[in-house]
Amino acid sequence: MTDALIPTPFLLLALALLAVPSRPPVVRRLRPPGPRAEPEADSTADPLAVASVFDLLAACLRAGLPLANAARAVAPTGPPGVATALRRAAELLALGAEASTAWQRAAAECANRPGAEEIDALARLARRSARSGASLATAVTELADQRRAAVEDAAAARAERAGVLIAGPLGLCFLPAFLCLGIVPVVLGLAGRVLGNGLL
């Protein structure tokens, strides 16, 4: 009966293991405590993101929002570089800066970021609209269409380049088969006839 009981040292060891709090894994201990910052979104993930932002900006302008409010409203939907430029221009416009100064400074601050070309084009349109009084919504819609056309052209060029690059290995694979099954039997057949008839 006593042989069937668990020895006391093993029972105490099991209770001690249950009472000791578990240690976190090494990987978790290496991370600093506190909230983790989310990685910045990659602007190359969606090549049409900038065109979508411009469409939203044009819709806000058509709805009657001032440019500063429209830029502030659509900034969170854009890629990081474009969003920063839109927020900066909106802040400067809200503080009373002239449109040409606000957009020029926003484009200069985002010159080395992704989407700098689109922001530069938008800044030029906004400055021109402020000088001439022309509708900015129409120009921004055309800018979005140009961005979509550029993305479509780039995709078509990549597809054509992929077709050319695929044709090379396929040609190298099929050329030996074509030589062995198409040309060599014909040459051997003709050589056999020529040599068999004693023409040489």
TrEMBL record:
It is found in: Cell membrane. Keywords: Cell membrane, Membrane, Transmembrane, Transmembrane helix. Its main location: membrane. It comes from the Bacteria. It is a multi-pass membrane protein. Residues 55-180 form the Type II secretion system protein GspF domain. Pfam families: T2SSF (PF00482). The chain crosses the membrane at residues 174-195. PANTHER family: INTEGRAL MEMBRANE PROTEIN-RELATED, POSSIBLE CONSERVED ALANINE RICH MEMBRANE PROTEIN. This is Type II secretion system F family protein.
